[in-house]
Amino acid sequence: MLTLPTTAKGEARVQPGHGVKINYLSSWNELFRRPDVEGTTVSVRYDPFDAGTAYAFVRGQWVVCRSQHDLIFQGHSERELQRATVELRRRHQAHVGQFSITAHRLADFLTSLEGREAFLLQRLRDREAHGRGTPGTGGSGPSSEGGELSPPLRADGSPGRTDDDLGDEDYGEYR
Question: How far is CA 89 from CA 30, 84, 95, 97, 109, in A?
Fold first, then answer.
C-alpha cells in the first residue's frame, strides 16, 4: 500500500457527502459518513493503473475508495487520464476562456469516440514503451488477450511472413 503513489500534498480532506478528491476525481467509502471522519484530513494513495480506485487511511486502516464514475474510470491508467485531460483542455482552449476539468467531463470524454481513441492510443504507446507489443502492431510481446504472442506484420499490414519477406536466403524445406 505504501508503494502506491500519492497526491502532491499526500492528504485530502473528507468532504461531507463527496469523499476525498484525488486527481480531479472524488472517491467514496462508507466510513466517510461517520461524523468523526467527515471534515478530517486523511492520507491518500491511488492506483496508477486503475483510476477508479483510491485508498484513504481512515481510523488507523487503509480503506478502498471508489470513484463516483467507477464503472467508466475502472481499468484506465493515470497516464490515460492525463492524456484525456490534456486533450479536453486543448479542445476547449479556443472556445472557453476558463475551463475546469471535472470527473463528469472526464467520464463524458472517455465514453465518447474521441476519448476512446485517445486512451487506446495511449495504451498502445504504453505497451510499446514497455516492449510488450499489441495485436496487429507487429509487437513481439504478449497481446492483451490471453498472453498469446502476436505475429509480426508485413509492410502491407497483413499478418505473417511469405517467402518474399525472407529475401534471397534459402532456408530449405522444414520436415
Answer: 33, 9, 10, 11, 11
- The amino acid sitting at 126 is D
25-61 pLDDT, tens digit each: 899 999 999 999 999 999 999 999 988 899 999 999 9
Give the pLDDT band (50/70/90) at residue 173.
low
Give me the residues paired with residue 109 across strands.
none
CA-CA distance, 34 to 10, in Å (whole number)? 22
Quote the distance between the C-alpha of residue 81 and its chain's center: 6
Distance CA 139, CA 128 (A): 8
> Order of strands, edge to edge, in the sheet holding 11-13?
11-13, 41-46, 53-58, 61-67, 25-28, 20-22
Nearest CA to 64 out of 23, 37, 28, 32 is that of 28
Residue pLDDT, tens place only, 59-86? 999 999 998 888 888 888 888 888 888 8
- The span from the CA of 103 to the CA of 116, in Å, is 16
Q: What is the dihedral of CA 14, 15, 17, 22, to 10 degrees?
A: -70
